Amino acid sequence: MTNNIAPDDYKKFKDFLEKACGITLGEGKQYLIISRLTKLLRNEDFFSVSELLTAMELGRPQYLRDLVIDAMTTNETSWFRDRSPFEALVTDVFPLWDKEKKRQCKIWSAACSSGQEPYTISIALSEYKALTAATNLNSASIVATDISASMLQQAKQAEYDESIVGRGISSKRKQQFFRKNDGRWIVADDIRQRVSFKTQNLLSTYDSLGKFDIIFCRNVLIYFASQRKTDILNRMALALNPGGFLFLGASETVMGYSDAFEMRRSASGVYYRLKD
Ligand SMILES: C[S@@+](CC[C@H](N)C(=O)[O-])C[C@H]1O[C@@H](n2cnc3c(N)ncnc32)[C@H](O)[C@@H]1O
Q1: How far is the CA of 220 from the centre of ligand 1 (A)?
Q2: Are 130 and 261 in a shared domain?
């Protein structure tokens, strides 16, 4: 297997990736492509990235494109990641929802990776319900989506190793919201039952998902070019019900990309609300 990528192939690969999932590779990222694709090239019997590109151009099955996207996306995640969004749900958003809303609350975790984000939202909901006897959130539901088939498979399975659960789940929450089986931690049924999973490319239309009241789109926009961020944020604004909320990653913002949202401050961070 060769580790070289010719300039033309590098450009072709970059263009494919940007069009397929929005991820922009800067200059000189050949090493990243090689390190992410080595296993795939070996498993699928390709000698080089050039051979892989030819197979993709010749209309090899969709599965090859999916494998490449799977390999090239960054799936880093953890439970209660950055803490503040989940604290803001319990201290600000859910109480406001209770005061203002009557209908079922629909939440979208828009790049859910292996499931930690939607299950964390579900745990936050259960904790809020335990604190608040009368809540309109009893029938709240969470739709979790990702482009990566392998991440969605792991997320649906809802089983995690000790080391993965240890990244953000306290022992108290572990006992309360998981059960142990064969050395693996399994997300409790009441936490799982609120969450459903679907494949969704953020570049494609969101029409089939319906409308949401809260969207989590965290730690994915950073990989996209400015125009893509603008497009995604404006379409997420259209996917929100009036007064809906948006949570982004710690290094992401709507500023300079969309003026559909106003920034709100919670005790520990910021989130956004759809403007009237
Ligand atoms: C770094 S993870 C973030 C996971 C989680 N939101 C968090 O903050 O911990 C980024 C996720 O975005 C997904 N992703 C990348 N490009 C995407 C696209 N175009 N559409 C949907 N999901 C995408 C990846 O598969 C990956 O699971």
Answers
A1: 5
A2: yes
Q: Does residue 168 share a domain with residue 39?
A: no
Chain-centre distance of CA 144, in angstroms? Answer: 7
The 10s digit of each residue's pLDDT in 128-163 is 999 998 888 999 999 999 999 999 999 999 999 999
Ligand 1 centroid to Cα of residue 233, in Å, is: 15
In a domain, 79, yes or no: no
Q: Which residues contact 240 (CB under 8 A, 6 or more apart)?
A: 211, 212, 213, 215, 246, 274
Q: Which atom of ligand 1 is nearest to the CA of 74?
A: 1
In this structure, are 246 and 114 located in the same domain?
A: yes
Does pTM surpass 0.70?
A: yes
Residue 250 has pLDDT above 80, yes or no: yes
Q: Which of 206, 45, 179, 42 has the alpha carbon at shortest distance from 110? A: 206
Nearest protein CA to atom 13 of ligand 1, as residue: 111
Tell whether ligand 1 has an atom less than 6 A from the beta carbon of residue 76. yes
Which domain does 133 fall in, by range? 84-274
CATH of the domain at 28: 1.10.155
Q: Residue 208 is encoded by which pair of tokens?
A: 């089939």
Q: Is residue 19 part of a domain?
A: yes
Question: How many distinct structural domains can be found in the chain?
Answer: 2
Same domain, 146 and 224: yes
Q: What is the pLDDT of residues 30-67, one digit of tens each?
A: 999 999 999 999 999 999 999 999 998 887 678 899 99
Positive or negative: CA dihedral 189, 190, 191, 193: positive
